[in-house]
Write a structure and sequence with these properties.
Length: 79
């Protein structure tokens, strides 16, 4: 079995974390009455979230680390 901190499992973990972070920010923005950004902006932000997530997922993340990471993503995406 592959180590979760390396290889394709790490990419999957990073993709899930980045996608969840972006989806939460986009959903909150739309629910609050904002217009969703263009698809190009959404794609760029999703890729940026995924790229940052690659660095964050270099080790195991507990609940506190995941919650903190999602909170930082929300602040960054809403600023």
């Amino acid at each position: 079995m592959s180590d979760p901190a390396t290889g394709w499992l790490r990419v999957v973990r990073a993709a899930v974390l980045g996608s969840v972070a972006f989806t939460l920010a986009l959903s909150a923005h739309v629910v609050a009455g904002g217009q969703p950004p263009s698809m190009t902006v959404c794609l760029v932000l999703t890729m940026a979230c995924g790229g940052v997530s690659i660095g964050v997922t270099s080790g195991r993340l507990g609940l506190a680390a995941i919650t903190t990471t999602l909170g930082v993503f929300q602040l960054g995406l809403h600023y």
